[in-house]
Amino acid sequence: MEGVRFALLLSTAERYVALLTNFICIVVVSRLMTPDEVGVSVVGMAVMVLALSAREFVSTNYLIQARTITKEDVQTAFTMMTVFTLVMSFIIYFSAPTIAVIYENAGLVSYLRIVTLAFAIEVFSAPVMSLFRREMAFGKIATINITSNAVSTVLVIILAEFGFSYMSFAWGWFATATLTCVLSLIISPRLWVFTPCLSRWRMMLTFGGYNGAITVMHRLSEQLPFLLLGRLLSLHHVAIYSRSLLVCQLPDRVILGGAGAVILPAFAAEVRKGRDLKAPYLMALEIVSGILWPALCLLAILAEPVVIIVLGNQWLEAVPLVRIIAFALIFSLGFDLNYPILVSLGAVRDMFLRTLIVAPISVLITFMAAFIGLKAVAYSLFIIMPFQALVSLYFIRKHINVPWNELAKSLQPSLVVALCGASAAFAMTLAVPLNGIAILPIFLCISSGLAGWLFGLWLTAHPLTEEIRHILGWLQLARSKQSVR
User: Fold this and answer.
1) Range of the domain at 203
2) What is the pLDDT of residue 5?
3) Each residue of 201-252: pLDDT tens digit?
4) Residue 367 φ then ψ, to 5°
5) Is there a domain that residue 113 lies in?
6) Any transmembrane segments, and where (predicted)?
7) Which of 61-65, 250-254, 280-284 has the lowest mean pLDDT?
8) Which of 70, 87, 368, 392 has the CA that lies 20 to 30 A from 16?
9) Under DSSP, is residue 317 helix (H, G, I), strand (E, B) or coil?
């Protein structure tokens, strides 16, 4: 158990370090590049993310899931991924000029060709990293990923400062792929992995079927809006929308970023013990919504200073979009809980069906909104988010007996808490109006929101109240032990 806890701690630490380095990179680079320049990298990245998701059909994750593996399994995984990657790389490399013509930007050619090389290099580290995960060698994984992310961040910032523009991101990806490959082979020089073999290809494709289809459709629904906006509007609009989404995802990543490493093992343990997931699911939903909803409301209120602090003054066009998207994300209703629950129940087919339903419809709604304009795309999330949440809940309720009235009842306290926090923060902005990034109004707004949030927790006897008491008690105990020493 101690080993599992330590592994989870390392995994969580790695996530937050990666989040911090990426955040620093975005804060600095957003001030060194214009939205038009960033738009090139967003479209190029969208193309490559779709290629990465397609590679899940032959993913080396099979090596993590299988009960037992042989050398032939590992070699087959490497061989199939290499063949698939070379084919995809060939297609993207030689279609780059056509993609550049479609988006009327010649810079996409060089960008796509560099990241295609990075895409190809990754095949040499993928099987080794999967073996590390199978062996729960999270210390090695953390060392490699943290080093690669740090080097990539520094390189991107330096190149952007010296005028490499959007190519800074391409070379950053190339550096990450190369360094990850080198470090993984230095730490574990298993050269036998790279022996060509196809003896286990059926097992690989069987595993990759649902997994690949789910990943492709999910990524398609995420990345297609950027590709559509780039074609129907402009690369400038793509960048504004992309960065607006990024800012709105900060509460989820900062507050709940480490929870992903814990949720799946926790639910899986409950299933192995034969316990009903209803109570832990509702509790998790209450806690997630009790933190995330007030944070999103506060973000919407503080949209202008947050955009200035994170992105800079040249991104002020994103402010109204941030307000719209932040409120729309409230309707996601604990989206991060759906995947671990269905996986822990072994309902991979239901995950596939869910994605098969929501992905095409979400893309269609975005496509129609893109013809109207950027704000329409943002407002379309008020349709997309509730729709995705309802479909997810339909499949969740197939496996967990959660009546709709109980679900609504569990979310009511969080709604009250969010309203209390948002009302207090908004009232303070009326008394002391926000003025750019003036410190006092921002401080008073956040303090009022926090006070309103705490009042809401007390008023509703929210489960978070007990969690806060536990944390305070633990801190007091730790302090008393330190004073005794």
Assistant:
1) 1-226
2) 52
3) 777 777 666 667 777 887 888 888 899 899 988 999 999 999 999 999 888 8
4) -60, -45
5) yes
6) 16-33, 39-58, 78-103, 109-132, 144-164, 170-193, 291-312, 318-339, 351-371, 377-395, 415-432, 438-459
7) 61-65
8) 392
9) coil
* Cα separation, 406 vs 414, whole angstroms: 14
Long-range contacts of 24-28 (CB under 8 A, 24+ apart): 24/153, 24/157, 25/152, 25/153, 25/156, 25/157, 25/172, 26/243, 26/246, 26/310, 26/311, 27/309, 27/310, 27/311, 28/157, 28/160
Percentage, residues of the chain above pLDDT 70: 87
Q: Tokens for 183? A: 């470090």
* Residue 90, in any domain of the structure: yes
Of 162, 163, 324, which Cα lies nearest the Cα of 244? 324
Domains in the chain, number: 1
- What the block records as the tokens of 472 is 């305070």
Residues 6+ apart with CB under 8 A from 134: 63, 64, 69
Which residue reads 């909104």 in tokens? 369
pLDDT tens for each residue of 467-485 = 778 777 776 776 776 665 5
Token pair recorded at residue 164: 């490499």
Assigned domain for 331 exists = no
Single pTM value for the model: 0.86
